[in-house]
Amino acid sequence: MPALITLTLASVHLLAGLILLIFSAWFIAACAIAVPGFNYLLPAVVVRALALIRIAAGYGYLYFGHQHMLQRLGRLRLGLFARLQQQRILDRAASTEAMSDAIDTLANAWIAWISQLAGSVLMLLIALITSAFYSPAWFGFIALLSAMVILLWLHHYRQSRGIAAQRADARSAFEQRSERYFQAAPLWHLGAASFQMPSADKVWDAELREQHAINWHLLLLQAGSMALLILMIWMQDDSAQGHAEFLIPVMLLLAARDWLANGFSANQAWVRDQHANTQLASLPLQPLTRKTAPDPVTSMQIKELKPDGRPVAPVSMTLPASGICLLRGSSGSGKSSLLQAIAGLIPASGSREMDGIPLPNGLCDAMRYVEQFPQCLNGTLLENLKVANPDLTEPEAFNVLHAVGLGYLTDLHDWLGVGGRRLSGGELKRLGLARAKIADRPVWLVDEPFEGLDQEYMHALCQWLQAQAQQRLILIASHIEPTALRIHQSLNLDDR
Ligand SMILES: Nc1ncnc2c1ncn2[C@@H]1O[C@H](COP(=O)(O)OP(=O)(O)OP(=O)(O)O)[C@@H](O)[C@H]1O
After folding, report:
1. More confident residue, 42 or 240
2. What pLDDT, in 10s, does the model give residues 104-133?
């Protein structure tokens, strides 16, 4: 509904402006040749009323247009978030751009191009109908003007598509360079040439070319309408003399640039809109399928599992329902890759089975991968724990923190993000284990939990993992093999 109101008000705004222009020109001419007794008051009132209608429709169009744009923005963003939640994001720069630029462009559609283009087309139709009503000759000139405008719009549309594609490429290259540049922020002090600030020159160039294309087409439109005007005056016979109505087609041609210019900016916004749609449709995402496996799991089998694109050999093994299993191997032998492939986080060939049932590609609800370097979100300690279970209560959070040796973090609302309390490497590892405990799944895949830990904590962690492994399978990838750990089964990736 707000979209239709926006469209109507934008058309009224344009129409009132055009009629105002023509009517005031007629009024001035009529005053010059007016006979005694001419009623000046009525046309003056009409001019004033048209001006007021134009102003009111302009404000109304902006009000409803922006209201509608904000509603659309919210809907589109939520839709995109919902989509991203079901997928793995492969290129963060592209998704960030899609979230900002493409969504804004799509939300703008009604005020940026639909209303503008519809308004200009409506104006043309009204001009054609009005001129046909007055005289076939006027109609001929307005029809010629319409044909010229349509040709120019089409030409401009084609040209804008080319420039918009270059602008989109330049923008995404700029986004990627900026992303890399900001990621390298901790190394800027080394002063390497590759840390040079990304330049947006190519984006500005494309935007300038877009503006030049509009200006150039407007110039052609102006020149064409002037040529039609000269032709019309030249072909006019004496019968028009003394008739103020003659100013109607004159004003239409004279002001053609003003009332038809919106069509060109609408073209530009339209091609941007098309690009935004393509960009959103082709986001580099990988679908995540979640498979709920039986709980408790009684056995797990990996057959010839090999992570795609990683220089590691395929692995086969049968794992028990509970206890600790160890994946050993030198650095780069593929321990992390294998755990991620088992978890379904990265694509892999081969198969995974739970209780003899093959798992489809993607994540499996029964498994929890504990990263080598757990991510700390920009939020409070509690928010960082609730990632594993949104229903976590504060007493439960305290219990888990205590169990993983983080009991000294007593403020659950302590901010852990940028500028807040920073967790050390060892604390981050314990945060990852706390999340695994909170998620409470029958299989844990734990990546390098012992790296960088002191002997005392390593011992405590072994005890805790041992206790947890009574009711679940814990597959640990580690190049450290603590003596305190009772290992049920182990596989050395270097031996294959
Ligand atoms: N995203 C990736 N794309 C391509 N190759 C990768 C990727 N990640 C890792 N690799 C490569 O896969 C191999 C195995 O890496 P992985 O991290 O699994 O080894 P790892 O045994 O866990 O090593 P570490 O003990 O040092 O953590 C390495 O040669 C690594 O360079």
Report:
1. 42
2. 989 988 888 888 888 889 888 988 888 888
Are the C-beta atoms of 417 and 467 separated by less than 8 Å? no
Tell me, yes or no, if the pTM score tops 0.90. no
- Rg for the chain (alpha carbons), in Å? 35
Residue 306 pLDDT class (50, 70, 90 cuts): very high
The reply to whether ligand 1 has any atom less than 6 angstroms from the CB of 429 is no
The CATH superfamily assigned to 299-495 is: P-loop containing nucleotide triphosphate hydrolases (3.40.50.300)
**Burial state string for 475-495 with b = 16 or more CB within 10 A and e = fewer than 16:** bbbbeeebeebeeeeebebee
Query: Does ligand 1 lie within 6 Å of residue 306's CB atom?
Result: no
CB neighbour burial string for 314-328, b if at least 16 within 10 angstroms, e if fewer = bbebebebbbbbbbb
Q: Where in the chain is the domain with CATH 3.40.50.300?
A: 299-495
Is the beta carbon of 340 within 6 A of some atom in ligand 1?
no
Give the SS3 label for residue 176. helix
Q: Please tell me the number of Cα atoms within 13 Å of 64 on its side-chain side.
A: 17
Q: Quote the ligand 1 centre to 13 CA distance (angstroms).
A: 62
Give the strand pairing for 489-492 and 323-328. Answer: parallel
CB 2: neighbour CB atoms within 10 A?
Answer: 17
As its CATH architecture, domain 2-287 has Up-down Bundle (1.20)
Q: Is the CB of 294 under 6 A from ligand 1?
A: no
